[in-house]
Design goal:
This protein is an alpha/beta fold. It has helices spanning about 5-30, 35-70, 75-80, 100-110, 130-145, 170-185, 210-220, 240-260, 275-280, 290-300, 325-340, 345-355, 360-385, 390-400, 405-420, 425-435, 450-455, 460-480; strands at about 90-95, 120-125, 150-155, 195, 205, 225-230, 270-275, 310-315. Strands 3-2-1-4-7-6-8-5 form an eight-stranded mixed sheet, sandwiched between helices. The longest helix has about 35 residues, at about 35-70.
Length: about 500
Amino acid sequence: MTKPTPLYRFLELIPGALVWGTFILAFSLSFIRPLWVVYFVIAYYFLWLLRITYFIFYVFFSFYKYKKAGNTDWFAKIQKISDWEKLYHIIYLPTAGEDIDVLRTTFNSLSNATYPNKKMIVILGGEGRMQDDFLPKAEIIKKEFEDKFHKLLITVHPDGLENEMKGKGANANWMGHKSRELIDELQIPYENLVVSYFDSDTCAHPKYFAYLAYQYLTAKDPTRLSYQPAVNYNNNIWDAPAAMRVTAFGTVFWLMAELMRPDRMHTFSSHSMSFKALVDVNYWQKDIVTDDSRIFLQCFFKYSGKYSVQPMYIPVSMDTVMDQNYWTSFKNLYKQQRRWAWGVEHFPYMITNFIKDKKIPLYKKFKFAFNQIEGMYTWATAPILLFVIGRLPLFVVGLGEQSSSVIVQNAPFVLEWLMGFSMIGLFVSAFLSLLIIPRRPKKYAKGKYFVMLLQWILLPITFVLFGAFPAIDAQTRLMLGKKYHLGFFVTPKARK
């Protein structure tokens, strides 16, 4: 791993400096110029209301497409396309200690696909440092599922290779190289292979691969696209604690809204792409934490900006965070959210590559850089400004000479009015969450639905504890330097 250049190191400082600069300035001015901060807070609340408004708009339209995609017979559609049989799916499943029941559930979801299983090549990759745990599970999976697919390849990623971080990306990189040997042996053209990169607990919708095949076969240039599905955390959603469910749904609805704006999207979590593009960029980067979104940027810069995301309004479902007790579950949830927030590591990578590549249009560079830094900044600051610091200047100014001014007298009412309207987003999320979750298990009474609605009162708390705090943590670590950088955290998967 090479030492970062002075420019790269300077760029690592920017996200954290913006966040802490905002907090220090807002706190200081609350005492020095409280009225200024009151004006700012009112303006910020108003902008937040606008964001909630377009969030609701995008989520509703995305949900409409989500339901429509789930009710469409995509396999019947692709059968009308000539030479559709040439297309194969290759599914990568890196694993590190997951229980055999988790793996079995994932493989069952693959075998239940409406796309022919014999057009699927599945790669299950374990870690060499955990091979005593992995190999017996791999043998069970091989015995139960090998005859269902075109090929099932088991790989073991050696421990201690140079220039690697211990994490999913390094394992996936090894899987990519090993699978290429198999593909070359089978003599399948790279353009006829579409990759799905899944977490080991990912259960794809039965129509996912048929829908993906339709998207791939009808795209103008399918090898220059990543295919991003809707992401659910439904596998154990009825069993998980309320705070975990609310946080999980926050991610679900954020991504559903983003699907309506593919021009600003990166890949996230489980996604798909062409094997040709994967080979062109030499597979997933093996020395970073957020390899699932970095692979999009690798392709974006490989093709000088001529690469984008194609939204797929069909779900893949994973486990929400849950462990044997609440305290451990909360710690794991925080670590998972911090790992996702570590996507801030893309900012210096992005800017340095923008500087090098003169072929990418300036407007596209600005748009991607702004979306990256604004998204990370808002993630870290919005909950604190809305629920914590936003109230401080009102308290301070109420004690001073300006307490009788019209703006000071009316500010609390204006803020309550704006926040009240913003709560519409909460009600929409609560309503849609009931339409997305799987059928209620028989072991739970019907009253559990009421609990599922009532849990949304936790949103302000989870918004701060498992939203802002992990993001601040991640951006601060990036700012402080290599010593404080994150390693890869494998989120434990537990089910009842």
